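On clarity, I found the account of how folds are encoded harder to follow than it need be. For illustration, here is how one protein appears when written out as sequence plus structure tokens.
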Amino acid sequence: QVQLVESGGGLVQAGGSLRLSCAAAGLTFSGYTMGWFRQAPGKERESVAAISWSGATTYYSDSVKGRFTISRDNAKNAVYLQLNSLKPEDTAVYYCNAGATTPANIMRGMGTAYWGPGTQVTVSS
């Protein structure tokens, strides 16, 4: 049974930082592209970042480029999202996902096979 479990969310002031983690189990982790999405109240889920199986290729949405960094550790079956210079508009539930596809497809919302339950990030002004 595949499981993705996010952690590291919380309440932070604007300008602060958080590091989200996603632990994966039950899949050949190194064979999957991993991604992060988020969903704010009343809004659709949107892509944030994606990383190829090797970590060599990364994609970011324009709204987080330069502030967020995605990385992965295949030995630990984990993917991370470093969130810096946080803004109130970054407040959302953050989800990690996995797909046997390209990072570009993950960013387009295509090819996701598995989702985690999400972790809440709240940025106060």
Observations:
- Helices lie at 103-107.
